[in-house]
Design a protein that fits this description.
Two copies of one chain form a homodimer.
Chain A: H1 4-20, H2 26-32, H3 39-51, E1 55-56, E2 65-66, H4 68-78, H5 86-96, H6 103-118, E3 122-127, E4 133-140, E5 145-152, E6 157-163, H7 170-184, H8 199-206, H9 210-227, E7 229-234, H10 248-259, H11 261-268, E8 275-279, E9 289-297, E10 303-311, H12 316-337
Antiparallel strand pairs in A: 1-2, 3-7, 3-10, 4-5, 5-6, 8-9, 9-10
Chain A binds a DNA duplex (30 and 30 nucleotides) through residues 23, 25-27, 37-41, 43-44, 46-47, 57-63.
Chain lengths: 338, 338
Amino acid sequence: MLSERKKKILCAVVDGYIERANPISSKEIMQTALPDCSSATIRNELSALESMGYLHQPHVSAGRVPSQKAFRIYVDELMNYERLSDEETNLIVKYLTHQVDSVEEMVERVAKVLSEITHLPALVMKEDNLDIITSIKLLDLDNGKALVVIVTDCRILKDSFVDLPEHFTSNMLKSAQDWLNKIFVGKHISDFLNYDFPFELVNEQFGDFNKFFKRIVDTLKRESLTHSLHLSTVGENKIFEHVEYKDSQKAKQFLDTVEQKELICDLLFCDQEGTTVKIDKEDSVLEGCSVVKSNVVLGENISGSIGVIGPVRMNYRRVVAVVDKISKILNYVINNKR
Amino acid sequence: MLSERKKKILCAVVDGYIERANPISSKEIMQTALPDCSSATIRNELSALESMGYLHQPHVSAGRVPSQKAFRIYVDELMNYERLSDEETNLIVKYLTHQVDSVEEMVERVAKVLSEITHLPALVMKEDNLDIITSIKLLDLDNGKALVVIVTDCRILKDSFVDLPEHFTSNMLKSAQDWLNKIFVGKHISDFLNYDFPFELVNEQFGDFNKFFKRIVDTLKRESLTHSLHLSTVGENKIFEHVEYKDSQKAKQFLDTVEQKELICDLLFCDQEGTTVKIDKEDSVLEGCSVVKSNVVLGENISGSIGVIGPVRMNYRRVVAVVDKISKILNYVINNKR
DNA sequence: AGTTAGCACTCAAACCAAAAGAGTGCTAAC
DNA sequence: GTTAGCACTCTTTTGGTTTGAGTGCTAACT
């Protein structure tokens, strides 16, 4: 357990480092946080904090730099949370309550506002697995093809084409549609994946059109697989505003990481309530990065996460406040719209 | 008009500069391109080429660097075109003839292969304006909403939702569909934009459901507007492989430029046959960038462009060969599939 | 025992001057 | 017209010195 003074000093180091990105000296801490102590006293404390693993020195005559462990305790215990100003909150509300037509558009808007306010790349993940199928439509396109439309409870559609077999009448298409609906309505999209195709049943009812049905189910399977998690990232270029990416190789590494959708999804995927902060290699190979995220309930069966990603040295006070606020507004907006 | 020797020297400068990204000296040219001349002779020629605007020196004791004008003449007259190896061509063919289900997937594949082979960000633009409407479907979703589907001749669909008015029966939806088809089938998507809505006609046939029709047409208008040009960019991070973007501010500037879709579309949009090269500020505010592009015919009424964007100092011999080859393969693949 | 003034010490960064090296332009001879 | 030769320029490298920030330690003080 840290003494109050150690906490104060550690907090000052992290605050200072977040603001100015250079090592923090004992003198600086004295001036900003502990005017009643001498720099020598602070040096002793710093030395102690260093041997506890919270700080390190780039070289002997430099100030102290917080370690990953320091950021962790800073986020969890030390920092005081920022409250967004009313103007800012109102601006966000206004932006997010604007009439939108689709989930995609909403995602777009959320990501945009997150990224703009935090000056960091924004991540918005939507989990479609939990979508419940409302109905399946087979639409005759009059050119030997049919359009397969899946309607789900969160207005998301998965559509694709399928060639109709020869001698397949409009009526047969209708019964095929009814058949599919009977089986799948009320189920989750993800149920397609584990669905064993009942060849015999089809044979019985539709003669030899097994291949056609198989194709439809395969299409749906593929769709559900590729769309089960949808991640959008917006504002990647914002990282260039931060000094840790002045070297373009660092920037490249960061951008490459962000492009690994599965990795980012893993990071965003966690059940924890409220806004959480993941720092550096606690969770993955995100060297030098942190993620601030919050879950959002998009409906009874749909969930998602929103968040931002950036250097470990980010302004957590502000970023956590923003992510938290936006997720709350989002929950509010969505639930009041239904 | 340049003498043969001047051409040879200029070509050597550009080749060398493309390869090594540093100023080229007279001695170097002597060794690589003109072993029969002395370096002094070459120096005289270089001096002449400089005063003609093809070259410049970073400082007095440095070699020569080609100007934008030099790159222009290099691409147009000096360089010898590379022929892709058969293995490489086969690889591309194999990759592009792989079974795909949608235009989007094809675009994805083309962009991917372009970007991987050239080590540059790839641009693929598809012009939907020329799509001809094959049919319009209004699909009752049983929850007070209808799905609007537009089928066009290039298999592209534009779909969106519209709320049904109260007391709107299934039969009325059917007649509404017939009515829309009568008006719009055979026309271009872009025709929606200029379409004046005939309130009286609707009133006559459908009573007071003007609002409903207006909403449908508005939706279609918006869709056709936002989707009229579709640009996808893939492999933006490839620019980090090039020294001109070692400074991350340069990289940022580049990435910001590439994100300006309209600007890139303008660049890609030109009728010229074959593969064309646009260099730096000839065409726009693309500071330090070049675009190599080629038009692709995707069908009778659909056109698109593929290309790459990168630093002016790019390997034109190879890049032009690749873009040219891929566009030809693409034309072949598409036309043989129909 | 905790705090602090004082001081020696370390090390990065800034500065400066000299040397090396690359490449040119010019001149005079071929 | 071509070229050898040379003086000249300017960047890059090298190495040494200075500066300054910041520490750790010690000894004195509360």
